[in-house]
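Lest this sound abstract, we think one record worth quoting, the chain in one-letter code, the fold tokenised, each line plainly labelled:

>
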Amino acid sequence: MPDFEAAPVNPAVRLASLARTDMAGVEALIAERASSATAVIPAIAHYLLDAGGKRIRPLITVASARMLGYQGRGHLSLAAAVEFIHSATLLHDDVVDDSELRRGKRPANKVWGNPQSVLVGDFLFARAFMLMVDAGSMEALHVLSRAAAVIAEGEVRQLAAVRQVATSRAEYMDIIAAKTAALFAAAAQVSPILAGAPARVEAAMETYGRELGLAFQLVDDALDYGGVAVELGKNTGDDFREGKITLPVALALEAGGDDERGFWVRTMAEGRQSPDDFDQAVTILKRHGALDATLEAARGHAARAVEALDAAPDNVWSQSLAALAEFVVERAY
């Protein structure tokens, strides 16, 4: 693959522009399938769907299809299904996490309540499966439905790991492989299936999506501890306040002594936090190079995503997907 040091500032925007016709079709499907005679359903659905997300996952589905020369319309249904699955998990996550901010504004459950958010999440899951059927590929349906199950398993594992300072880096990587990377992987894999691509290309695109998803989550983990001049659309320190043992904390726990472990036990395991504790947490993470190590791990996963594209055709679509993988990490700086 070519060198992408001169990639545009935001390759996601470039990719969206390149795929604007297809993404307009995806947006039309999203609007159509989010509709309901029960007014609260489209209200909550669009509150989240229209909140400014970059639609990276459906973009990957659309771009992968075009990269492989697919000429049908099934990829639009699958891309919309991917976004519905993602949005449904966000609605459920907000109820579990009880966070005060989602994409720069109050999450839906803080506006309409937990029961409504959970049920609309269920509605979006159901719509996603209808869209999968519309695409007309049982194999693609299998990939996305399996991803939905894996995501749910990952969320349950993460919930069980909350405030568990014994969570290792290996255990955490398994969690994010399920809760985040699985949908990226499926989003990239389903288009080769529709396009009838060789098995090695399908496997390579699954790898691309999975590695990109891991990089994406690890960068988010580092960004949650601040120090980066970007608009995150979330509260810095949410993971700390919610007792989530992400990779930076797992690495600091491995490297620190008893005094520091006592700090993490008090603040994360027991949830006893003072106003100055977040700043102290950041100091500890930086002392052990945990944030840099997390970003270095993210960079490695992004590099493996780009490498996987060697099996794909070398065209403007694969070049944009490669640039996107590199940008995922560079946004942290």
